[in-house]
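Cross-check.
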Amino acid sequence: MALCFGGSGFYTYHVHFASQAAGRIKQFNQDQPTPPFQRASTDAEGQSSTREAGWCLPPHAHLLFLRRRSCQEHLPSQPNYTSRLTSTAPQHTVKKLTPATKKTADPAQRRIDETLSTFPPNSEKAKKITQSVAAFIAKDLRPYSVVENAGFRHLLKTLEPRYKLPSRSHFTENVIPALYNGTKAQVMASMIQAKRVAITCDAWTSVATESYLTVTAHYISEDWQFLSHVLQTRAVYESHTGAHVAELLSRVVEEWQLSDKDVVLVTDNASNMIAAAEFGKFPHVKCFAHTLNLASQRALKVATLSRLLGRVRRISTFFHRSTTANHYLKEKQKCLGLKNHKLITDVATRWNSAYDMVERFLEQQPAICATLLSPEVRKGQSDLCTLNETDVSNAEDAVSALKPMKDATTLMSEESNPTVSLIAPINAQLFQDMTGTIGDSPMIHAIKNAIKTDLLKRYNSEAEKKILHTASALDPRFKGLPFLTVEERLEVYRGVTEEAASLEVISPCFM
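Predicted model, tokenized:
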């Protein structure tokens, strides 16, 4: 230790040095008092001796001073420095530094970036991040609980430590409603410029068996851009009667200020939707993709085809559930040089999935047959058999007969901007394709007859025909109307000319 005088008291500096220095201090405290400038020592024979020196500290002690603290007791104010030193020495025994006594960093000590103040909630930076989180929830259909997820909060903390994520209730009660109101105002400002608006209506049930009604608006903007906006998805707790659906649609038209837009309603072929169009007095066009699905579903119920689908479905389901069978199938595909494609299982509500299932089965038939011959695969499945020659022939006929329906469905599904002008020409082509020929097998004949019979019931009213034919005449791709007779074609052109003549010219096309 080292002593210093000054002020109101004495201060002691704690020093830590090597074990030899600690031993010397201990020996110094235990021996008789020595003159202040003498150092106790021991000769080679163990005899104590003294020699003049400075204070009893190693020469390098001043380099090891770490900290100081006030003495718990003031040294007695006596002029005898030796007695003063020896009387206070036991209170200031030098301690040896050990790993356990080393000062470590306080785990509670915050890092520099954590000590920075957080953004005020009203700051522009915080508002911008909060709005981005709200857009993430809305655009990607995320649940509100995502703001409580540890991973999401960690991501935001890493990207911006100074941002404090608001609570879930803040998003549900403030941020998302404000985002909705702002977006709604923008959509209304855009739609108010449109001359005509079509709305589509779809009733559906969630996995939680809750019923909803979704309404979407479609229109052409002033700069000739085709735009679509989902206006609402509203829970429906009442019965889906035509009158109730019509009431809901009328509210939507009024809320979004579409009363003067000559709204046309597009729905599926459900009877309540047809009734809703009549109750609401909306011009009505049935969804063509849904029409194709209904006609094809009727063909899938042909007895021979239905049995065939059951056999193919059973085999495909087996391969989906058996990891062993799936492994052997991949090996056989490699040996036979076939594409590494998985088998497809159909979905009851989508007819084209049944088509894809049969088509994939025919593609992988050699690998399937080779796999089912393996004892390891057939273990416990002795009654599982592949298709015989007749079944394979029927499967090929089914794919051939349903190919036009598949192409039409794909066209309507992949078209970025499907329009009503496509319905009449495609429908006319399907009538021609579904007309039986002499060379058709019994299965092909039954499939074609089922589809054509169902299509004949669709779009047969005069109001529907006028809408479809007029739209096709205005489409440069079909304006020749080759699918109509000469009389029908002239009638359509006459109607288009009369309607064009009745239009008010707002501004000349050319200055």
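The longest strand covers residues 211-220. The radius of gyration is 44 Å. Passed to J.P. for a second look.
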